Automatic annotation (TrEMBL):
Organism placement in taxonomy: Bacteria, Bacillati, Bacillota, Clostridia, Eubacteriales
GO MF terms, alphabetically ordered: DNA binding; DNA-binding transcription factor activity
Annotated ranges, domain HTH marR-type: 1-143
InterPro entries on file: HTH_MarR-typ, Transc_reg_Sar_Rot_HTH, WH-like_DNA-bd_sf, WH_DNA-bd_sf
Organism from which the protein derives: Clostridium beijerinckii (Clostridium MP)
Record protein name field: HTH-type transcriptional regulator SarZ
Keyword Chloroplast: no
Length: 150
């Protein structure tokens, strides 16, 4: 067994940061009646539409790192809240025709501010170089875990 640094366990810090970011975002998103996962999914859908990409549940599962049933629940919530309109794909039932409504677009504009504020708080006191190194290390750790466990 490798020597683990019990004084500063990485997983504790990473989990605590993720929980705090989600809690902070959820609190700020309450006024829009959205949760962080719903907001992130709405943002992803808008980006896919803007780039002309076909939206599949498999793609959403992969990017959001969630199971199909969770994606379906999030999509249903966005439909109920009037943020998107969803219908089955024309040529393939696994694809969706999704439109972001005017309400959804307005929320996206506000959401961007919410996520930027939380990100600024996370990175406060870091130089541009430190921010770049931090992101590079996060990406490396992410890839390490997903290559190892996928």
């Amino acid at each position: 067994m490798k020597n683990r640094n019990w004084e500063y366990p990485y997983d504790l810090f990473i989990k605590s940061i993720a929980q705090k970011m989600r809690y902070t975002n959820d609190e700020k998103l309450k006024e829009y009646d959205l949760t962080s996962p719903q907001a992130l999914l709405l943002e992803l859908i808008e980006r896919e539409i803007r780039h002309g990409n076909e939206i599949t549940r498999k793609n959403l599962e992969s990017v959001m790192n969630l199971k199909g049933s969770s994606i379906t629940n999030l999509l249903n919530g966005l439909v109920r809240k009037g943020c998107i309109i969803r219908s089955a794909g024309i040529s393939d039932g696994r694809t969706f025709q999704i439109q972001v409504t005017a309400k959804g677009k307005n929320i996206l504009t506000e959401m961007e501010k919410v996520f930027e504020e939380t990100e600024e708080q996370l990175l406060k006191g870091m130089s541009q170089e430190e921010k770049k190194v931090f992101l590079d290390l996060l990406i490396k750790a992410y890839k390490n875990l997903y290559e190892e466990f996928d």
